[in-house]
């Protein structure tokens, strides 16, 4: 079902597409390709909302912290808002702390209209285009996002892109998960199949090192509470290197359990990294879809993606998309 969700200041209408299948219901917006809502049956068969979402388009425009959005054309950070490609330096829009670029800059895919290409009861395909030079990026880029329900409890997110000139691409889905429907998700237990992480400086820019998670706060190889003993101060915002070397296709990357262990989210992805952000800086001035305010750790972001600042670290997985090739990333989120 497609309905009008709101209108942008320039008069562009924004749609809400409701998907339903096997007791699941999802809501997707044509603004930012946002997953606004996802409801699944709990153990007793009662519907439970499991992602953070906002009530109005105005709330998204004024207050969204990438809730459920598709981030790009390069998700996460590029240090000092510049990079070299084929011997040419490209300077980008510095929208993060005045000196770096975060989630694609001012023209971020998560903060603009997408076009609905097709939709059905259980799936929707959206498309966005970015012209050459936007925010300093080379090449015209065309990107697609497909959301498809896969009962029981499955949401498949497929991201694809092509370009007419070499350009970095790193698309990521940015939902905040809360399986308890309670104000603080810090009691969730997390397990991640990652033996290494990429340390960062004070701005969250990778230093270039790839370090073992052993004896660090980033060791989630055995499930443990996110806000438990040993958690970093002020919180988590780190790229974990998935242990998928030599493995093609979907890789069982992570499992997030509610604090009462009555619901769990499993993540399988083709991406090489998983950004863990515990939303410790969250403090919304408006109420969301839940019956509580979205404050610190109201949700946990688990973002399958390439490593941040890959374009400035040649030993990180390559994010350069060239003409004639395609970027394709697939992730299955399954709650049950």
Number of helices in the DSSP assignment: 1
> Which class in CATH terms?
Mainly Beta
How would you sum up the major sheet?
Answer: 9 strands, antiparallel
**How many strand segments?**
28
What structural class results from the helix and strand content? mainly beta
How do the strands of the widest beta sheet line up side by side?
11-12-13-14-28-24-23-18-21
Annotated CATH architecture: Distorted Sandwich
Shape: globular
Counted up, domains total 1
Beta strand %:
35-45%
Describe this structure in words.
This protein is mainly β and about 325 residues long. The protein has a single domain, classed as Beta-galactosidase, Chain A, domain 5. It has one helix and 28 strands. The protein has one helix at about 55-65; strands spanning about 1-5, 15-20, 25-30, 35-40, 45-50, 70, 75-80, 80-85, 90, 100, 115-120, 125-130, 140-150, 155-165, 165-170, 170-175, 175, 190, 195, 210, 225, 235-240, 250-255, 265-270, 275, 300-305, 320, 325-335. The strands form seven sheets. A nine-stranded antiparallel sheet has the order 11-12-13-14-28-24-23-18-21, with no helix packed on it. The longest helix is centred in the N-terminal third of the chain and has 7 residues, at about 55-65. The model has no long low-confidence stretch (mean pLDDT about 95).
């Amino acid at each position: 079902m497609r309905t009008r969700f709101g209108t942008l200041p320039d008069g562009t209408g924004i749609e809400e597409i409701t998907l339903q299948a096997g007791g699941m219901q999802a809501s997707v917006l044509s603004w930012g390709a946002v997953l606004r809502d996802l409801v699944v049956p709990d153990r007793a068969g009662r519907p439970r909302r499991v992602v953070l979402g906002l009530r109005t388009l105005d709330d998204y425009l004024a207050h969204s912290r990438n809730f459920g959005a598709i981030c790009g054309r390069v998700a996460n950070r590029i240090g000092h808002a510049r990079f070299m490609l084929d011997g040419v330096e490209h300077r980008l829009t510095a929208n993060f702390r005045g000196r770096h670029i975060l989630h694609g800059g001012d023209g971020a895919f998560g903060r603009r209209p997408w076009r609905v290409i097709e939709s059905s009861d259980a799936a929707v395909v959206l498309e966005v285009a970015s012209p050459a030079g936007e925010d300093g990026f080379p090449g015209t880029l065309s990107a697609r996002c497909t959301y498809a329900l896969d009962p029981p409890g499955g949401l498949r997110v497929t991201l694809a892109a092509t370009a007419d000139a070499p350009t970095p691409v790193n698309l990521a889905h940015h939902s905040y998960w809360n399986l308890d429907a309670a104000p603080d998700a810090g009691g969730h237990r997390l397990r991640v199949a990652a033996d290494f992480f990429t340390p960062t400086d004070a701005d969250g820019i990778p230093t270039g090192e790839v370090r073992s998670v052993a004896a660090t706060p980033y060791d989630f190889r055995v499930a443990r509470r996110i806000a438990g003993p040993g958690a970093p101060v002020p919180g988590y915002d780190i790229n974990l290197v998935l242990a998928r070397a030599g493995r093609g296709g979907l890789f069982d990357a992570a499992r997030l359990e509610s604090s009462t262990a009555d619901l769990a989210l499993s993540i399988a992805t083709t991406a090489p990294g998983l950004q863990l952000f515990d939303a410790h800086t969250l403090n919304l001035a408006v109420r969301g879809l839940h019956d509580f305010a979205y404050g610190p750790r109201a949700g946990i972001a688990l973002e399958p993606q390439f490593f941040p600042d890959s374009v400035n670290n040649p030993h990180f997985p390559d994010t350069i998309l060239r003409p004639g090739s395609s970027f394709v990333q697939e992730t299955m989120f399954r709650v049950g």
